[in-house]
Amino acid sequence: MSRYHTTGIDPENGETVNVCYGWDQVPGFKAGYFFQVFSTNEDTIREDPSGEGILVNEGFLVGITKDRLKTLAKQYSAKLKNI
């Protein structure tokens, strides 16, 4: 597993978000990239049942393609390194 962190912009409200992405393979599932977006807004974090303020969680178990990863990164204005 690889995991990288950067920041981005939520296209819905313009707020800064934390972005995690990388490559993973969960046994029994399709390997691929993942892309996660976490709010930095305290209210959003508090309202999230997980307590993490997660807004996007693609590729968590079933990996996404590099093209999908790049599309999501562009949508959230996140600069990817090591990809």
Summarize the model shown.
The chain contains two helices and four strands. With 83 residues, it is α+β, with helices and mostly antiparallel strands.
List the defining traits of the structure above.
83 residues; alpha+beta; globular
Please describe what this structure looks like.
By secondary structure, the protein is of the alpha+beta class. The chain has one domain (2-75). It has helices at residues 42-47, 66-75; strands spanning 2-9, 16-24, 32-39, 54-58. A hairpin with a 7-residue loop joins strand 2 and strand 3 (32-39).
One letter per element, helices H and strands E, the order comes to EEEHEH
Our measurement of the CA-to-CA distance between the termini, rounded to an integer number of angstroms, reads 13 Å
**Oligomeric state of the chains?**
single chain
Shape: globular
Radius of gyration: 13 Å
What is the number of domains? 1
Q: Number of DSSP strands?
A: 4
Tell me the strand percentage band.
35-45%
The mean pLDDT is 95
Strands of the largest sheet, in order across it? 1-2-3-4
